[in-house]
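Quick check before the chapter quiz. The format below is the same one you will see on the exam, so make sure you can read both the input and the output lines.
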Amino acid sequence: MEYHKVCELDDVWEGEMELFDVGENEVLIIHSPGMELRAYSPICPHQEFSLFDGELENCVLTCSAHLWQFDVLSGEGVNPTGTSLTSYPIKVEDEAIWVAFPENDKDS
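Here is the expected output.
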């Protein structure tokens, strides 16, 4: 699994989310309260709207299109249940955020 540098740790403040292009991939980085970092596909699994246009409050991300909600720590659906976000492995190294994308996705 190959990791790609996404941004510096200071680029995503605690309690915020940011959208990044990494090569031909897009990734939504969420820095939840408590210093937890998560990396997800920025596309809502419901009707493929951008999650970056949604609202992040505490640890719940709400899609702006149809108000589907997701727990950002687990990626699991809160409303409705039984759905989940596509997550990517993430790590912090040398004050930078690195993400690994599935091999079938295009690399940078």
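If your answer matched, good. The radius of gyration is 13 Å.
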